[in-house]
Every structure is written in structure tokens, then in C-alpha cells.
Amino acid sequence: MAAEPASPANAAEMRAYYAQRAPAYERVYAKPERQADLRTLEAALPGLFAGRCVLEIACGTGWWTPHGAARAAAWLATDINPETLAIARSKALPACVRLAEADAWALEGLPDDERFDAAFAGFWWSHVPLARLPAWLDLLHARLAPGARVVFIDNVYVEGSSTPIARRDAEGNQWQQRPLDDGSVHEVLKNFPSREDALQLLGSRALDATWTALPHYWMLSYALA
Ligand SMILES: C[S@@+](CC[C@H](N)C(=O)[O-])C[C@H]1O[C@@H](n2cnc3c(N)ncnc32)[C@H](O)[C@@H]1O
Q1: What are phi and psi of 202, to 5 degrees?
Q2: Count of H helices and E strands in the chain?
Q3: 79 CB less than 6 Å from ligand 1?
Q4: How far apart are CA 24 and CA 181, in angstroms?
Q5: At 104, which CATH number?
Q6: 97 lies in which domain range?
Q7: Nearest one of 154, 123, 4 to 58, comparing CA atoms
Q8: Is residue 1 situated within a structural domain?
Q9: Considering its fold, how many domains does the chain have in total?
Q10: Is 189 in the pocket of ligand 1 (CB under 6 A)?
Q11: Residue 2 maps to a domain
Q12: Which of 7, 10, 13, 15 to mutate to test ligand 1, by most ligand atoms within 8 A of the CB atom?
């Protein structure tokens, strides 16, 4: 298979893939071998965002939103897809939560006067092409106040639990072949960064960085310099 550049065209495919997957998305949180890790992460989130005004990127169906927002002052959960947002909207969420459509690649259309002193993204980092990560982090950081708390959660690759890696492209991105219920198969970019990869990329922009390594997930928390 030819190596494709991880271009904005792939971003459009990813958006469409998650729109189509929305009704079945939360099955990924029912995997028995991941339950202990999920409880650990859910328990860790409220304290990280206590009293903060938080911007959530790519919130999807809002699985993490009630946990992160439990003690937050304000929480703006954003996603590009109305299909995933509709599911999030159907849930009982803390009173501080608002939901909005926003494209994570542009982060436009957010309230101009809103100052965020924290950001959260679950399972977004792994979908950002390696070549776009530095600029994307700059884009996110530009929306945040100095000292803001930034938290990412994402997958560890686990043989037998994770979807196998089908190929690696010329830029070093990994790609999976993912089936949906209608029989369609979608090629999705999914990287599995190490602690060193992530911290090296952030460099001096991340202070007080903490990397939590669980069997199936990692969590990175830092203060924006
Ligand atoms: C792996 S899911 C993560 C959902 C949620 N954060 C979670 O952890 O359950 C990726 C999400 O990214 C959203 N998405 C895809 N492209 C996007 C974009 N350009 N801007 C914002 N969200 C996007 C999808 O709709 C989907 O909800």
C-alpha cells in the first residue's frame, strides 16, 4: 500500500469515521481487561481540574466529561461531529458543562473572551499526525492562560486488546484498519507515543509533567510554561 501523507484529507476521513461510529463508540469502554485502568483514570480527573475553567478537545460522546468536570468551575466540551455531541448532550452532566461544535485543527468559534486555565483531550493526541503535533500543541496552548493545567489520556498498544497496526507511513505514523458495524473498513491514523516522545516534543513548554503509565492507557499532565 502506498504511503500517504498524513494530510488534512485524512482529518476529513477521521471526522467521518467517528461520525459514523458514534452510536457504537462507547463499546470501547466495555472491554473487560480495561476496566481497572478506566476506574483509575476516572478517579484521577476531578482533582486535576478542581476550580478550573476547562477546554475539552474532541469530547466525543462525553465519556470523560462528567469525571473531569465534577469539580471544575466551567467546562467547555467541544467536538466537530454533531453525532457524538448529541450523545454527550443526552447525558446527565455537571451543571458547569457546556457543549459546542468546534474543529480541533482551528479552534475557532470559541467564545473570544473566554479564558481557559486548563485543557483536556482524551484519545486525540494519538490521532494527530506526528508532523502536525508541534503546531497543534501551539494552537491549543495559545488558547490557554500561562500556568494552565493540560491533561491528555490515550492508549498504550497492547497485543490482543488493541487493533493491530497495519502499516507505518513515511512520516512514522501508524495506521489501523478499523471495521464498523455496516461492514465498511476505515484506515485510521493511531500513534502510540512513549513518555520520552511526548516530553521531548513538549520540551520547555511543559512544567511539572507527570506521566501515568497504566497497562492499557497513559495520562500526561503538565502545567503550561
Ligand atoms: C477517539 S475519539 C475520542 C472521543 C472522546 N474524547 C473519548 O475519549 O471518548 C475522537 C473524537 O475526535 C472527534 N474529531 C474528529 N475530528 C475532529 C476535529 N477535526 N475536531 C474536533 N473533533 C474531532 C471525533 O468526532 C471523536 O469524537
Answers
A1: -75, -35
A2: 6, 10
A3: yes
A4: 8
A5: 3.40.50.150
A6: 8-224
A7: 123
A8: no
A9: 1
A10: no
A11: no
A12: 15
**pLDDT tens, residue by residue, 91-115:** 999 999 999 999 999 999 888 778 8
Inform me whether the pLDDT recorded for 4 exceeds 60.
no
Test site for ligand 1: of 81, 105, 139, 190, most ligand atoms within 8 A of the Cβ: 81
| Interval 119-175: pLDDT, tens | 999 999 999 999 999 999 999 999 999 999 999 999 999 999 999 999 999 999 999
Whether residue 123 has its Cβ less than 6 Å from ligand 1:
yes
Please give the number of the atom of ligand 1 that sits closest to the Cα of 25.
9
Nearest Cα to Cα of residue 147 among 189, 106, 119: 119
Rounded CA separation 69/167 (Å): 37
**Ligand 1 atom at shortest distance from the alpha carbon of 63:** 9
225: how many CB neighbours lie within 10 A of its CB? 14
| Contact 83 CB / ligand 1 (< 6 Å) | no
Q: How far apart are CA 16 and CA 172, in angstroms?
A: 23
Pocket test for ligand 1, best of 14, 56, 132 (most atoms within 8 A of CB): 14
Helix (H, G, I), strand (E, B) or coil at 33: helix
104 lines ligand 1 (CB under 6 A): yes
Contact 85, 153 (CB under 8 A): no
Quote the cell numbers at residue 148. 494552565
Residue 46 belongs to a domain: yes
